[in-house]
Amino acid sequence: MSKVNFSVENQIGFIEINNPPVNALDQELLNELSVLLDNISNEIDVLIISGAGEKAFVAGADIGEFPQLSKETGEQLSLNGQRVFNKLEAMPQPVIAAIDGFALGGGLELALACDFRIATTRSQLGLPEVKLGIIPGYGGTQRLARLIGPGKAKQFIFSGEFISAEQAAQIGLVEEVTNESAIDEAKRWAKKIQSRGLLAVSAAKRAIHEGLQTTLQEGLALEANLFGEICETKDKNEGVTAFLEKREPKFMKI
Predict the structure, then answer these.
(1) Confidence of residue 201 (pLDDT cuts 50, 70, 90)
(2) pLDDT band at 254; cut points 50, 70, 90
(3) Which of 10, 49, 132, 206 makes the best surface tag, with the fewest CB within 10 Å?
């Protein structure tokens, strides 16, 4: 049985992590996810990631794989997880994490590789690796510090404590907390994004991601270059014309 389910609804893609009881990220699952990400069609406008069941989004890596790790095999395990999550982060489409339940360790690192995160009020988030005598290895030390700042990231990682969805929202770790279904709220955002110029959304995602890895001046130059490229698209012409004609635009699909 597959540990990663994929479906499409109205050009919104849904990835469900399905590895009971807590959707642990073992190597088999990561390999399945990697292959899936390589083969997702560009016809998908937005991607939503969730966890199966009612207990966890993803409660971490499979700790049963850790006892025999050496320096070499530990580094390879880390690099493999990073490679998969880098693919997710590099998707041209917006990727939304719909978190319900525990998002811990590798599970939170998976969510950090998404563009933004929606969590239910009952969710708990954490990077508890130090409690096992290890550190986050799938990008957590890097993405979390870039998202919430190094001080907060250090406090979070050094303590290994869990925090509530509300606390996560206060520090900018999740963008929205809902009393309802996280997937339904993610779908609402996905539909809103679908109504926009998707070429522009993809370009904006690239500008933000690549710009954060450079100086401000280099980021501004990238923004200007992408802005210029968008100006030559049918979407720019349609968007501007629709605005002037006071009607809804009909943008192209990417």
Answers:
(1) very high
(2) low
(3) 10
Residue whose entry in the numeric block shows the structure tokens 């955002």: 189
CATH of the domain at 177: 3.90.226.10
Q: Which domain holds residue 208?
A: 198-244
Counting Cα atoms < 13 Å in the Cβ hemisphere of 112 gives: 31
DSSP track, 89-107: HT-SS-EEEEE-SEEETHH
Positions marked active-site = 109, 129
The amino acid present at 46, given as its one-letter code, is: V
pLDDT (tens digit per residue) in 39-51: 998 889 999 999 9
In degrees, rounded to 5, the angle at the alpha carbon of residue 77 between the alpha carbons of residues 52 and 163 is 50
Q: What's the CA gap between 189 and 240, in Å, rounded? A: 23
Query: Would the pLDDT of 249 be above 80?
Result: yes
Q: Are 61 and 29 in contact (CB under 8 A)?
A: no
Query: How many Cβ atoms from other residues are within 10 Å of residue 9's Cβ?
Result: 10
Cα(21)–Cα(84) distance, integer angstroms? 22
